[in-house]
Amino acid sequence: MSGIGRASVIIGAGTIVSRLTGFLRTAVLVSAVGAIGQASDAFGVANQLPNNIYAIVATGLVAAVIVPQIVRAGADPDGGQAFISKLVTLGTVALLAVTIVSTLCAPLLVALYADGFSAEQQALATAFAYWCLPQIVFYGVYAILGEILNARRVYGPYTWAPIANNLVSIVGFLVFIALFGGPRETLDGWTPEMITLLAGTATFGIVVQCLVLLVFWRRAGLRLHADFRWRGMGLRLIGRLAGWTFLMVVVGQLAGIVQSRVLSPASGVGPANFATANAWLLFMLPYSIIVLSIGTPYFTQLSEHAKAGRDDEVRGDIVRSIRTLGLFVVVATAALAVAAAPASRMLTNSAEDAVAAAWVLVAFLVSLVPLAVLFVVQRTFYAYDDTRTPFFFMLVQSVLVVVTALIASALLPLEWLAAGVALGQSLAGIIQVVIATWLLERRLGGLRIGTWLTALARFTIAAIPAAGAGWLVFLLNGGVDGWMLADKWWGALGAGLIAVVVLAVYLGMLALLRAPELTPALALARRLLPGRR
Fold first, then answer.
1. What global pTM score does this model have?
2. Which of 96, 149, 182, 257 could pair covalently with 154 via S-S, beta carbons 3.0-4.6 A apart?
3. What's its membrane topology (predicted)?
Protein backbone atom coordinates (compact mmCIF):
# COMPACT_ATOMS: atom_id res chain seq x y z
CA MET A 1 0.00 0.00 0.00
CA SER A 2 1.14 3.59 -0.69
CA GLY A 3 2.48 5.88 2.00
CA ILE A 4 -0.77 7.81 1.94
CA GLY A 5 -2.72 4.59 2.35
CA ARG A 6 -0.66 3.50 5.34
CA ALA A 7 -0.91 6.94 6.93
CA SER A 8 -4.66 7.03 6.34
CA VAL A 9 -5.08 3.68 8.07
CA ILE A 10 -3.00 4.79 11.08
CA ILE A 11 -4.99 8.00 11.41
CA GLY A 12 -8.30 6.29 10.68
CA ALA A 13 -7.80 3.50 13.21
CA GLY A 14 -6.72 5.95 15.89
CA THR A 15 -9.62 8.26 15.11
CA ILE A 16 -12.13 5.40 15.33
CA VAL A 17 -10.90 4.39 18.78
CA SER A 18 -10.68 8.03 19.84
CA ARG A 19 -14.21 8.79 18.68
CA LEU A 20 -15.67 5.66 20.27
CA THR A 21 -14.10 6.50 23.61
CA GLY A 22 -15.17 10.10 23.04
CA PHE A 23 -18.76 9.01 22.64
CA LEU A 24 -18.51 6.95 25.80
CA ARG A 25 -17.09 10.02 27.55
CA THR A 26 -20.00 12.17 26.39
CA ALA A 27 -22.54 9.48 27.29
CA VAL A 28 -21.15 9.34 30.84
CA LEU A 29 -21.16 13.15 31.00
CA VAL A 30 -24.82 13.21 29.90
CA SER A 31 -25.57 10.71 32.68
CA ALA A 32 -23.98 13.17 35.10
CA VAL A 33 -25.51 16.49 33.99
CA GLY A 34 -28.23 15.62 31.44
CA ALA A 35 -28.49 16.54 27.75
CA ILE A 36 -31.27 19.12 27.54
CA GLY A 37 -31.22 21.21 30.70
CA GLN A 38 -29.84 24.30 32.37
CA ALA A 39 -26.90 22.64 34.14
CA SER A 40 -25.74 20.82 31.01
CA ASP A 41 -25.94 24.02 28.96
CA ALA A 42 -23.98 25.90 31.63
CA PHE A 43 -21.21 23.29 31.52
CA GLY A 44 -21.41 23.08 27.73
CA VAL A 45 -20.83 26.81 27.27
CA ALA A 46 -17.98 26.86 29.83
CA ASN A 47 -16.21 23.81 28.38
CA GLN A 48 -16.52 25.20 24.85
CA LEU A 49 -14.89 28.51 25.76
CA PRO A 50 -11.27 27.21 25.67
CA ASN A 51 -11.91 25.70 22.23
CA ASN A 52 -13.28 29.01 20.98
CA ILE A 53 -10.45 31.10 22.42
CA TYR A 54 -7.83 28.66 21.15
CA ALA A 55 -9.45 28.71 17.70
CA ILE A 56 -9.18 32.49 17.55
CA VAL A 57 -5.53 32.53 18.59
CA ALA A 58 -4.03 29.45 16.99
CA THR A 59 -6.24 27.19 14.90
CA GLY A 60 -5.88 29.19 11.71
CA LEU A 61 -2.14 29.46 12.23
CA VAL A 62 -1.75 25.73 12.87
CA ALA A 63 -3.88 24.57 9.96
CA ALA A 64 -2.80 27.09 7.36
CA VAL A 65 0.82 27.88 8.20
CA ILE A 66 2.63 25.24 10.22
CA VAL A 67 2.51 22.27 7.85
CA PRO A 68 3.69 24.19 4.74
CA GLN A 69 6.39 26.00 6.74
CA ILE A 70 7.67 22.78 8.36
CA VAL A 71 7.79 21.15 4.94
CA ARG A 72 9.87 24.12 3.70
CA ALA A 73 12.13 24.12 6.81
CA GLY A 74 12.82 20.41 6.27
CA ALA A 75 15.25 21.45 3.54
CA ASP A 76 17.46 23.27 6.09
CA PRO A 77 20.81 21.65 6.99
CA ASP A 78 19.47 20.61 10.42
CA GLY A 79 16.25 19.22 8.97
CA GLY A 80 14.22 22.04 10.48
CA GLN A 81 15.12 21.27 14.11
CA ALA A 82 16.00 24.87 15.03
CA PHE A 83 12.89 26.27 13.37
CA ILE A 84 10.67 23.77 15.21
CA SER A 85 12.15 24.65 18.62
CA LYS A 86 11.64 28.36 17.98
CA LEU A 87 8.10 27.76 16.76
CA VAL A 88 7.10 25.68 19.77
CA THR A 89 8.66 28.16 22.21
CA LEU A 90 6.91 31.12 20.59
CA GLY A 91 3.59 29.29 20.45
CA THR A 92 3.74 28.20 24.09
CA VAL A 93 4.54 31.69 25.36
CA ALA A 94 1.70 33.23 23.35
CA LEU A 95 -0.79 30.56 24.43
CA LEU A 96 0.17 30.91 28.09
CA ALA A 97 -0.43 34.66 27.98
CA VAL A 98 -3.81 34.21 26.30
CA THR A 99 -4.80 31.55 28.84
CA ILE A 100 -4.09 33.84 31.80
CA VAL A 101 -6.03 36.76 30.31
CA SER A 102 -8.96 34.56 29.28
CA THR A 103 -9.27 32.96 32.71
CA LEU A 104 -9.34 36.39 34.37
CA CYS A 105 -12.10 37.41 31.94
CA ALA A 106 -14.25 34.30 32.53
CA PRO A 107 -17.40 36.18 33.68
CA LEU A 108 -17.29 38.46 30.64
CA LEU A 109 -16.81 35.54 28.26
CA VAL A 110 -19.76 33.62 29.71
CA ALA A 111 -21.98 36.70 29.45
CA LEU A 112 -20.83 37.19 25.84
CA TYR A 113 -21.71 33.65 24.74
CA ALA A 114 -24.83 33.08 26.85
CA ASP A 115 -26.67 36.33 27.44
CA GLY A 116 -29.95 34.38 27.47
CA PHE A 117 -28.97 32.52 30.64
CA SER A 118 -30.44 33.58 33.96
CA ALA A 119 -28.10 35.15 36.53
CA GLU A 120 -27.93 31.86 38.43
CA GLN A 121 -27.13 29.89 35.29
CA GLN A 122 -24.44 32.39 34.28
CA ALA A 123 -22.89 32.10 37.75
CA LEU A 124 -22.68 28.31 37.43
CA ALA A 125 -21.23 28.57 33.92
CA THR A 126 -18.63 31.06 35.17
CA ALA A 127 -17.58 28.74 37.99
CA PHE A 128 -17.12 25.94 35.44
CA ALA A 129 -15.23 28.32 33.13
CA TYR A 130 -12.57 29.15 35.74
CA TRP A 131 -11.63 25.46 35.72
CA CYS A 132 -12.03 24.91 31.97
CA LEU A 133 -10.22 27.91 30.47
CA PRO A 134 -6.69 26.68 31.42
CA GLN A 135 -7.25 24.05 28.73
CA ILE A 136 -6.27 26.68 26.15
CA VAL A 137 -2.52 26.34 26.56
CA PHE A 138 -2.64 22.53 26.54
CA TYR A 139 -4.91 22.41 23.51
CA GLY A 140 -2.53 24.75 21.73
CA VAL A 141 0.70 22.94 22.53
CA TYR A 142 -0.93 19.62 21.61
CA ALA A 143 -2.08 21.00 18.23
CA ILE A 144 1.29 22.59 17.41
CA LEU A 145 3.27 19.47 18.26
CA GLY A 146 0.79 17.25 16.46
CA GLU A 147 0.87 19.26 13.24
CA ILE A 148 4.68 19.26 13.34
CA LEU A 149 4.62 15.47 13.59
CA ASN A 150 2.12 15.30 10.71
CA ALA A 151 4.33 17.53 8.58
CA ARG A 152 7.19 15.07 9.18
CA ARG A 153 4.90 12.14 8.26
CA VAL A 154 4.59 10.85 11.83
CA TYR A 155 0.81 10.49 12.09
CA GLY A 156 0.08 8.02 14.87
CA PRO A 157 0.70 9.86 18.20
CA TYR A 158 -1.40 12.93 17.29
CA THR A 159 -4.33 10.69 16.47
CA TRP A 160 -4.09 8.32 19.41
CA ALA A 161 -3.32 10.80 22.23
CA PRO A 162 -6.97 11.96 22.66
CA ILE A 163 -7.86 8.45 23.80
CA ALA A 164 -5.97 9.14 27.04
CA ASN A 165 -8.03 12.29 27.51
CA ASN A 166 -11.26 10.38 27.03
CA LEU A 167 -10.29 7.64 29.48
CA VAL A 168 -9.31 10.16 32.16
CA SER A 169 -12.58 12.03 31.68
CA ILE A 170 -14.67 8.86 31.80
CA VAL A 171 -13.14 7.89 35.13
CA GLY A 172 -13.60 11.38 36.54
CA PHE A 173 -17.24 11.65 35.43
CA LEU A 174 -18.00 8.19 36.84
CA VAL A 175 -16.52 9.29 40.17
CA PHE A 176 -18.79 12.35 40.02
CA ILE A 177 -21.86 10.14 39.49
CA ALA A 178 -20.79 7.80 42.28
CA LEU A 179 -20.33 10.66 44.74
CA PHE A 180 -23.13 13.03 43.77
CA GLY A 181 -25.57 11.03 41.64
CA GLY A 182 -27.02 12.05 38.30
CA PRO A 183 -28.25 13.38 36.07
CA ARG A 184 -28.07 16.72 37.87
CA GLU A 185 -30.00 18.77 35.29
CA THR A 186 -31.19 21.69 37.44
CA LEU A 187 -29.22 24.58 38.90
CA ASP A 188 -30.01 23.63 42.49
CA GLY A 189 -27.51 22.00 44.81
CA TRP A 190 -24.24 22.57 42.95
CA THR A 191 -21.37 22.76 45.46
CA PRO A 192 -17.76 23.89 44.89
CA GLU A 193 -16.65 20.27 45.24
CA MET A 194 -19.01 19.16 42.47
CA ILE A 195 -17.92 21.98 40.16
CA THR A 196 -14.24 21.27 40.82
CA LEU A 197 -14.55 17.56 40.14
CA LEU A 198 -16.60 17.90 36.93
CA ALA A 199 -14.76 20.80 35.27
CA GLY A 200 -11.38 19.86 36.73
CA THR A 201 -11.71 16.39 35.22
CA ALA A 202 -12.35 17.90 31.79
CA THR A 203 -9.21 20.03 32.05
CA PHE A 204 -7.02 17.28 33.48
CA GLY A 205 -7.93 15.09 30.52
CA ILE A 206 -6.57 17.73 28.12
CA VAL A 207 -3.38 17.99 30.19
CA VAL A 208 -2.83 14.22 29.94
CA GLN A 209 -3.53 14.31 26.20
CA CYS A 210 -0.76 16.88 25.71
CA LEU A 211 1.71 15.00 27.92
CA VAL A 212 1.12 11.76 26.01
CA LEU A 213 2.14 13.49 22.79
CA LEU A 214 5.38 14.68 24.42
CA VAL A 215 6.24 11.07 25.30
CA PHE A 216 6.32 10.20 21.59
CA TRP A 217 8.28 13.28 20.58
CA ARG A 218 11.78 11.79 20.83
CA ARG A 219 10.64 8.58 19.12
CA ALA A 220 9.96 10.77 16.07
CA GLY A 221 13.63 11.74 15.96
CA LEU A 222 13.02 15.33 17.10
CA ARG A 223 14.95 17.15 19.82
CA LEU A 224 12.93 19.96 21.34
CA HIS A 225 14.39 22.74 23.50
CA ALA A 226 13.32 26.24 24.52
CA ASP A 227 14.61 28.80 22.02
CA PHE A 228 13.70 32.47 22.40
CA ARG A 229 15.86 33.64 19.48
CA TRP A 230 12.93 34.33 17.19
CA ARG A 231 14.66 36.81 14.91
CA GLY A 232 15.32 35.31 11.49
CA MET A 233 12.79 32.47 11.70
CA GLY A 234 10.50 34.06 9.12
CA LEU A 235 8.00 35.69 11.46
CA ARG A 236 7.15 38.28 8.82
CA LEU A 237 6.05 35.54 6.37
CA ILE A 238 4.28 33.60 9.11
CA GLY A 239 2.59 36.80 10.27
CA ARG A 240 1.44 37.63 6.75
CA LEU A 241 0.00 34.16 6.24
CA ALA A 242 -1.46 33.96 9.74
CA GLY A 243 -2.97 37.43 9.53
CA TRP A 244 -5.64 36.36 7.08
CA THR A 245 -6.34 33.08 8.86
CA PHE A 246 -6.55 34.97 12.15
CA LEU A 247 -9.18 37.24 10.63
CA MET A 248 -10.93 34.20 9.17
CA VAL A 249 -11.14 32.43 12.51
CA VAL A 250 -12.23 35.63 14.28
CA VAL A 251 -15.07 36.04 11.79
CA GLY A 252 -16.06 32.40 12.30
CA GLN A 253 -16.02 32.79 16.06
CA LEU A 254 -18.11 35.95 15.87
CA ALA A 255 -20.67 33.92 13.96
CA GLY A 256 -20.39 31.25 16.64
CA ILE A 257 -21.04 33.82 19.35
CA VAL A 258 -24.25 34.86 17.57
CA GLN A 259 -25.32 31.22 17.34
CA SER A 260 -24.58 30.63 21.02
CA ARG A 261 -26.51 33.74 22.08
CA VAL A 262 -29.44 32.76 19.84
CA LEU A 263 -29.53 29.26 21.35
CA SER A 264 -29.17 30.25 25.01
CA PRO A 265 -32.85 31.24 25.56
CA ALA A 266 -33.86 27.69 24.55
CA SER A 267 -31.98 26.22 27.52
CA GLY A 268 -34.32 24.05 29.55
CA VAL A 269 -37.05 24.22 26.88
CA GLY A 270 -35.57 22.27 23.96
CA PRO A 271 -32.20 21.45 22.41
CA ALA A 272 -29.85 24.35 23.11
CA ASN A 273 -26.09 24.84 23.49
CA PHE A 274 -25.08 21.45 24.92
CA ALA A 275 -27.45 19.37 22.78
CA THR A 276 -26.31 21.22 19.66
CA ALA A 277 -22.68 20.56 20.56
CA ASN A 278 -23.47 16.85 20.97
CA ALA A 279 -25.27 16.77 17.61
CA TRP A 280 -22.17 18.38 16.11
CA LEU A 281 -20.08 15.67 17.77
CA LEU A 282 -22.13 13.00 15.99
CA PHE A 283 -21.94 14.95 12.75
CA MET A 284 -18.16 15.19 13.03
CA LEU A 285 -17.72 11.44 13.56
CA PRO A 286 -17.56 10.55 9.85
CA TYR A 287 -15.70 13.78 9.11
CA SER A 288 -13.02 12.93 11.65
CA ILE A 289 -12.69 9.27 10.73
CA ILE A 290 -12.89 9.68 6.96
CA VAL A 291 -11.93 13.21 5.98
CA LEU A 292 -9.09 13.78 8.43
CA SER A 293 -7.60 10.28 8.16
CA ILE A 294 -7.54 10.29 4.35
CA GLY A 295 -7.22 14.02 3.76
CA THR A 296 -4.37 14.80 6.17
CA PRO A 297 -1.72 12.68 4.38
CA TYR A 298 -2.97 14.03 1.04
CA PHE A 299 -2.45 17.56 2.35
CA THR A 300 1.19 16.86 3.18
CA GLN A 301 1.77 15.41 -0.31
CA LEU A 302 -0.23 18.20 -1.95
CA SER A 303 1.88 20.80 -0.10
CA GLU A 304 5.06 19.21 -1.44
CA HIS A 305 3.74 19.24 -5.01
CA ALA A 306 2.59 22.85 -4.66
CA LYS A 307 5.95 23.99 -3.29
CA ALA A 308 7.66 22.31 -6.26
CA GLY A 309 5.31 24.08 -8.70
CA ARG A 310 3.88 20.81 -10.02
CA ASP A 311 0.36 22.12 -10.54
CA ASP A 312 -0.80 19.17 -12.63
CA GLU A 313 0.08 16.79 -9.82
CA VAL A 314 -1.81 19.07 -7.42
CA ARG A 315 -4.88 18.73 -9.66
CA GLY A 316 -4.44 14.97 -9.54
CA ASP A 317 -4.20 15.06 -5.75
CA ILE A 318 -7.43 17.05 -5.58
CA VAL A 319 -9.36 14.67 -7.83
CA ARG A 320 -8.10 11.52 -6.10
CA SER A 321 -8.72 12.85 -2.59
CA ILE A 322 -12.26 14.08 -3.33
CA ARG A 323 -13.26 10.84 -5.08
CA THR A 324 -11.83 8.73 -2.26
CA LEU A 325 -13.36 10.89 0.45
CA GLY A 326 -16.68 11.05 -1.38
CA LEU A 327 -17.15 7.29 -1.54
CA PHE A 328 -16.98 7.02 2.23
CA VAL A 329 -18.62 10.33 3.19
CA VAL A 330 -21.76 9.79 1.07
CA VAL A 331 -22.57 6.46 2.71
CA ALA A 332 -21.76 7.89 6.14
CA THR A 333 -24.23 10.70 5.51
CA ALA A 334 -26.94 8.26 4.45
CA ALA A 335 -26.38 5.93 7.41
CA LEU A 336 -26.23 8.68 10.03
CA ALA A 337 -29.31 10.43 8.62
CA VAL A 338 -31.57 7.37 8.87
CA ALA A 339 -30.04 6.38 12.22
CA ALA A 340 -30.25 9.93 13.61
CA ALA A 341 -32.67 9.09 16.43
CA PRO A 342 -30.86 5.95 17.73
CA ALA A 343 -27.51 7.73 17.39
CA SER A 344 -28.82 10.75 19.29
CA ARG A 345 -30.19 8.42 21.98
CA MET A 346 -26.59 7.56 22.89
CA LEU A 347 -26.10 11.16 24.02
CA THR A 348 -29.47 11.83 25.65
CA ASN A 349 -31.40 10.50 28.67
CA SER A 350 -34.81 9.88 27.06
CA ALA A 351 -36.39 8.92 23.75
CA GLU A 352 -38.13 12.29 23.59
CA ASP A 353 -34.84 14.14 23.92
CA ALA A 354 -33.27 11.84 21.31
CA VAL A 355 -35.94 12.68 18.73
CA ALA A 356 -35.53 16.40 19.38
CA ALA A 357 -31.74 16.17 19.07
CA ALA A 358 -32.01 14.00 15.93
CA TRP A 359 -33.52 16.89 13.98
CA VAL A 360 -30.48 19.02 14.84
CA LEU A 361 -28.19 16.24 13.61
CA VAL A 362 -30.09 15.81 10.33
CA ALA A 363 -29.89 19.56 9.72
CA PHE A 364 -26.11 19.44 10.14
CA LEU A 365 -25.81 16.41 7.82
CA VAL A 366 -27.08 18.43 4.87
CA SER A 367 -23.55 19.86 4.52
CA LEU A 368 -21.38 16.83 5.29
CA VAL A 369 -20.39 16.01 1.69
CA PRO A 370 -19.76 19.68 0.78
CA LEU A 371 -17.64 20.04 3.92
CA ALA A 372 -15.44 17.15 2.77
CA VAL A 373 -14.91 18.90 -0.57
CA LEU A 374 -14.14 22.14 1.23
CA PHE A 375 -11.44 20.40 3.28
CA VAL A 376 -9.53 19.63 0.09
CA VAL A 377 -10.19 22.95 -1.65
CA GLN A 378 -9.32 25.14 1.33
CA ARG A 379 -6.10 23.32 2.09
CA THR A 380 -5.02 23.59 -1.51
CA PHE A 381 -5.06 27.37 -1.10
CA TYR A 382 -3.00 26.92 2.07
CA ALA A 383 -0.48 24.77 0.20
CA TYR A 384 0.14 27.72 -2.12
CA ASP A 385 0.63 30.03 0.89
CA ASP A 386 -2.66 31.74 0.07
CA THR A 387 -4.63 32.45 3.22
CA ARG A 388 -6.21 35.63 1.85
CA THR A 389 -8.66 33.95 -0.53
CA PRO A 390 -10.04 31.50 2.08
CA PHE A 391 -10.77 34.49 4.31
CA PHE A 392 -13.19 35.94 1.79
CA PHE A 393 -15.22 32.77 1.16
CA MET A 394 -15.20 32.15 4.92
CA LEU A 395 -16.51 35.69 5.39
CA VAL A 396 -19.46 34.95 3.10
CA GLN A 397 -20.21 31.76 5.03
CA SER A 398 -20.05 33.49 8.41
CA VAL A 399 -22.36 36.30 7.31
CA LEU A 400 -24.88 33.72 6.10
CA VAL A 401 -24.57 31.79 9.40
CA VAL A 402 -25.40 34.95 11.33
CA VAL A 403 -28.30 35.90 9.05
CA THR A 404 -29.86 32.43 9.13
CA ALA A 405 -29.45 32.17 12.92
CA LEU A 406 -31.23 35.49 13.39
CA ILE A 407 -33.99 34.40 11.00
CA ALA A 408 -34.40 31.14 12.94
CA SER A 409 -34.58 33.10 16.20
CA ALA A 410 -37.31 35.34 14.80
CA LEU A 411 -39.44 32.67 13.15
CA LEU A 412 -39.06 29.38 15.04
CA PRO A 413 -40.35 28.27 18.45
CA LEU A 414 -37.67 27.50 21.04
CA GLU A 415 -38.17 23.74 20.60
CA TRP A 416 -37.06 23.96 16.93
CA LEU A 417 -34.52 26.74 17.28
CA ALA A 418 -31.42 24.51 17.37
CA ALA A 419 -32.48 22.60 14.25
CA GLY A 420 -33.10 25.88 12.42
CA VAL A 421 -29.68 27.24 13.39
CA ALA A 422 -28.01 24.00 12.27
CA LEU A 423 -29.80 24.03 8.92
CA GLY A 424 -28.78 27.63 8.36
CA GLN A 425 -25.17 26.72 9.01
CA SER A 426 -25.40 23.85 6.50
CA LEU A 427 -26.85 26.05 3.77
CA ALA A 428 -24.12 28.62 4.39
CA GLY A 429 -21.49 25.90 4.12
CA ILE A 430 -22.85 24.71 0.76
CA ILE A 431 -22.66 28.22 -0.68
CA GLN A 432 -19.15 28.57 0.73
CA VAL A 433 -17.83 25.45 -1.00
CA VAL A 434 -19.33 26.52 -4.34
CA ILE A 435 -17.54 29.87 -4.13
CA ALA A 436 -14.28 28.29 -2.93
CA THR A 437 -14.25 25.71 -5.73
CA TRP A 438 -14.90 28.39 -8.36
CA LEU A 439 -12.02 30.52 -7.05
CA LEU A 440 -9.60 27.58 -6.94
CA GLU A 441 -10.55 26.53 -10.46
CA ARG A 442 -9.71 30.01 -11.69
CA ARG A 443 -6.36 29.91 -9.92
CA LEU A 444 -5.24 26.50 -11.17
CA GLY A 445 -6.79 26.76 -14.61
CA GLY A 446 -9.16 23.83 -14.07
CA LEU A 447 -9.88 21.27 -11.36
CA ARG A 448 -11.34 18.46 -13.48
CA ILE A 449 -14.60 19.16 -11.66
CA GLY A 450 -16.63 16.94 -13.96
CA THR A 451 -14.53 13.93 -12.92
CA TRP A 452 -15.25 14.14 -9.22
CA LEU A 453 -18.80 15.48 -9.57
CA THR A 454 -19.65 12.43 -11.68
CA ALA A 455 -18.19 10.21 -8.96
CA LEU A 456 -20.20 11.99 -6.23
CA ALA A 457 -23.37 11.58 -8.31
CA ARG A 458 -22.65 7.86 -8.70
CA PHE A 459 -22.16 7.51 -4.95
CA THR A 460 -25.41 9.37 -4.28
CA ILE A 461 -27.36 7.09 -6.63
CA ALA A 462 -26.01 4.09 -4.73
CA ALA A 463 -26.80 5.68 -1.37
CA ILE A 464 -30.51 6.32 -2.02
CA PRO A 465 -31.67 2.65 -1.90
CA ALA A 466 -29.15 2.03 0.89
CA ALA A 467 -30.76 4.77 3.00
CA GLY A 468 -34.20 3.36 2.19
CA ALA A 469 -33.14 -0.05 3.47
CA GLY A 470 -31.76 1.46 6.66
CA TRP A 471 -34.96 3.43 7.28
CA LEU A 472 -37.01 0.26 6.76
CA VAL A 473 -34.93 -1.50 9.42
CA PHE A 474 -35.64 1.37 11.82
CA LEU A 475 -39.40 1.25 11.15
CA LEU A 476 -39.62 -2.56 11.38
CA ASN A 477 -38.03 -2.37 14.82
CA GLY A 478 -40.62 0.03 16.20
CA GLY A 479 -39.29 3.38 15.00
CA VAL A 480 -39.28 6.08 17.68
CA ASP A 481 -41.35 3.81 19.96
CA GLY A 482 -39.12 0.76 19.51
CA TRP A 483 -36.22 -0.78 21.35
CA MET A 484 -33.61 1.35 19.57
CA LEU A 485 -34.58 4.35 21.68
CA ALA A 486 -35.03 2.44 24.95
CA ASP A 487 -31.67 3.55 26.39
CA LYS A 488 -28.16 4.61 25.38
CA TRP A 489 -26.81 1.13 24.76
CA TRP A 490 -29.81 -0.02 22.72
CA GLY A 491 -29.42 3.22 20.76
CA ALA A 492 -25.82 2.35 19.98
CA LEU A 493 -26.79 -1.17 18.91
CA GLY A 494 -29.65 0.12 16.78
CA ALA A 495 -27.49 2.73 15.07
CA GLY A 496 -24.87 0.08 14.39
CA LEU A 497 -27.43 -2.31 12.90
CA ILE A 498 -28.81 0.38 10.59
CA ALA A 499 -25.30 1.38 9.53
CA VAL A 500 -24.40 -2.22 8.63
CA VAL A 501 -27.51 -2.58 6.46
CA VAL A 502 -26.93 0.77 4.74
CA LEU A 503 -23.28 -0.09 4.06
CA ALA A 504 -24.10 -3.55 2.67
CA VAL A 505 -26.71 -2.23 0.25
CA TYR A 506 -24.44 0.67 -0.72
CA LEU A 507 -21.54 -1.62 -1.57
CA GLY A 508 -23.87 -3.84 -3.56
CA MET A 509 -25.16 -0.87 -5.54
CA LEU A 510 -21.62 0.36 -6.23
CA ALA A 511 -20.71 -3.10 -7.50
CA LEU A 512 -23.74 -3.07 -9.82
CA LEU A 513 -22.73 0.38 -11.06
CA ARG A 514 -19.15 -0.87 -11.49
CA ALA A 515 -17.75 2.10 -9.61
CA PRO A 516 -13.98 2.26 -10.28
CA GLU A 517 -13.38 3.69 -6.81
CA LEU A 518 -14.74 0.60 -5.07
CA THR A 519 -11.71 -1.70 -5.33
CA PRO A 520 -9.09 0.71 -3.88
CA ALA A 521 -11.57 1.79 -1.19
CA LEU A 522 -12.14 -1.81 -0.08
CA ALA A 523 -8.37 -2.37 -0.02
CA LEU A 524 -8.02 0.64 2.27
CA ALA A 525 -10.87 -0.54 4.51
CA ARG A 526 -9.36 -4.04 4.82
CA ARG A 527 -6.23 -2.49 6.27
CA LEU A 528 -8.28 -1.50 9.31
CA LEU A 529 -9.17 -5.12 10.12
CA PRO A 530 -7.30 -6.75 13.04
CA GLY A 531 -4.18 -8.57 11.95
CA ARG A 532 -3.99 -6.89 8.53
CA ARG A 533 -0.93 -4.90 7.47
1. 0.82
2. 149
3. Multi-pass membrane protein
- Pair 367, 429: CB distance under 8 Å: yes
Q: How would you class 388 by CB atoms within 10 Å of its CB: exposed for 0-12, middle for 13-18, buried for 19 or more?
A: middle
- Nearest C-alpha neighbor of 33 from the set 179, 178, 202, 186: 186
User: What count of other Cβ atoms lies within 10 Å of the Cβ of residue 51?
Assistant: 17
| DSSP 8-state secondary structure symbol assigned to residue 223 | -
Number of Cβ within a 10 Å radius of residue 234: 16
As a whole number of angstroms, the distance between CA 100 and CA 134 comes to: 8
Q: Burial, 331: exposed, middle or buried (Cβ in 10 Å; 0-12, 13-18, 19+)? A: buried
Residue 329: C-alpha distances to residues 163, 243, 276, 366, 533 (Å): 23, 32, 21, 12, 24
DSSP collapsed to 3 states, 156-209 = HHHHHHHHHHHHHHHHHHHHHHHHHCCCCCCCCCCCHHHHHHHHHHHHHHHHHH
- Rounded (to 5) percent helix, strand, coil in the chain: 80, 0, 20
Q: Write the pLDDT tens digit of every residue in 292-349.
A: 667 666 666 777 777 777 778 878 888 888 888 899 999 999 999 999 999 999 999 9
* Burial class (CB within 10 angstroms; exposed 0-12, middle 13-18, buried 19+) of 319: middle
Q: What would the DSSP string read from start to end of 89-150?
A: HHHHHHHHHHHHHHHHTHHHHHHHH-TTS-HHHHHHHHHHHHHHTTHHHHHHHHHHHHHHHH
Q: How many helices (H) and strands (E) does the chain have?
A: 22, 0
d(CA 458, CA 64): 32
Whole-angstrom Cα distance, residue 171 to residue 168? 5
Please give the Cα distance from 296 to 317 (Å, whole number).
12
Sign of the four-CA dihedral 195, 196, 197, 201: positive
Angle (deg, nearest 10), helices 311-338 and 273-286: 120
Domain edges within the chain: 3-526
Angle between helices 135-151 and 156-180 (to 10 degrees): 150
What are the two backbone dihedrals, phi and then psi, of residue 269, each rounded to the nearest 5 degrees? -105, -45
In this predicted model, what pLDDT tens digit does every residue of 25-57 receive, in sequence order? 999 999 999 888 899 999 999 999 998 887 766
Degrees, nearest 5: CA angle 51-285-290: 110
